[in-house]
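Got a spare moment? Tell me how you read both lines of this record:
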Amino acid sequence: MLLWQLACVTVIVAICTGVFVSIGVQQLRAEAETSALSIARTVAADSDVRADVARASADTGTPTNASLRGGPLSVLAAAAEANTGALFIVITDDHGIRLAHPDPQLLGAEVSTSFAEALAGRETVSWEAGTLGESARAKVPVRDPDTDEPTGEVSVGFAPSSVFKELPLLLGGVALAAVVALALGAVVSFVLRRRLEHLTLGLQPEEMSALVQNQAAVLDGVGDGVLAWGPDDVVTVANTTAARLLGIPDLVGRRIHDLALPGPVIAALAGERRLSATGGRGPDAAEPVVLADHVVYIDTHPVSHANRDLGLIAVIRDRTDVVTLTDRLETVASMTDALRVQRHEFANRLHVTAGLMDAGRVPDARDYLDDVLEASRTAGGPSTGEHLTEPFLVSLLEAKAAQAGERGVHLTVGADSLVRGVVSLPEDVATVLANLVDNAVSAAVYGQQPRWVDVELLDDADTLVMTVSDSGQGVANGARVFSDVPRTDLDPDAVHGRGIGLPLVRDIAARLGGEVWLADAGGRDGSGAVFCARLPGVMRAPTRPRQGED
């Protein structure tokens, strides 16, 4: 990289040097030509020169060399040469005969270069080679003082050595400037290279190209959302999955705190920075949050290189399907436990019946079976109430009642419960109701006798309202019951009790347009807490059976 920069600087300096030298040479040539023209004009305008040239041109004969030596024109031309430093000053008549020349031997002879332009009244400037060698010369017509017609010419020339005598100084200045520019370019190139290495963490351009390609392939290939931002909280990297989960199409270039995201999401994204700033350690597992219709886990990790803070990177994992499947599996597990309890109870009843029959007490056995049959004909079962007949809710509460019974808690459905519709969103209803019931059962276990949990369910059109109360010790801090503070009172080896909890229940209800709230914190006179939930859009009207169907 540095060699390429130095090569570019060298080429640029060489080109600039050549241009400057060329301009300097042209300027010296132009100055010589201008000086020659000025001197020729001055000499041609002299009255004595005009008169002498006019007389020589009017003479029909050709002047001899001897008559011209030491003449007034030769004296005048020699004096002008000495004063101006010109190579030569030549004066001719209208036939090109030299009337004045630096070489006396050439006086009276015709000049070696063309004089037609001067006799036509035109001034010329050019570089020509004559008897005295190559020179920058100017030719100016000498006009008759009476008629103003051209009667001869004045030719003034400067030798190349005198024209370019300042060229070494010019070349030295240009060379010095080129060396300084080259040195400055080398220093700047080195500084820029160090700066670029600092900004790119030492990566070369080809490595950066490969890194960008690999980054694009990885970001578009993973199924999780990836979001990265620098120490200034400005997003620098975001893949399409992150934009889809967050619901914001343009993330790059925006500040994290300026994004229109829920508070728990912003807190989850900024949580690792707060911990790293205080020297703490983050949680072992991310807490779930709700984003629109998605349940996501957000893991944030600080990124550094060579003890330099580069910002944070967040991995956003969509676990909506996993949470839904988990809820279904928990419901199936609850049903399985309920069936296991019922099987055990059914086996006990068979043992009682068989014992009565073995003892010959057939009437007593018959009465016992009638009682069991009458109890099974109750509309909603023994623990779900008379008016709760919705199959999904009955099954779920029967299973929860069986689980609560194993923990010594009696779960009942309030007599005022009335559900006439059918559950249309079983996953959301199971998540909210099962979490509230599980929390109530756990609270009742640590309460005083008798231990109970009471559930009341009411529906109004498509809205389901539920109330769950318990006999526990109440909620110590009602203001933080829905906060995202991780639980620390659980057995590390426990399998159950680590669900998504009240924060997610609240978010799910809010997503449906409803709410979950603490109606009574309890803790007074042995009364437990009372939680309420309102879930719009989770119920639908029952399908009426067609004629002839039961």
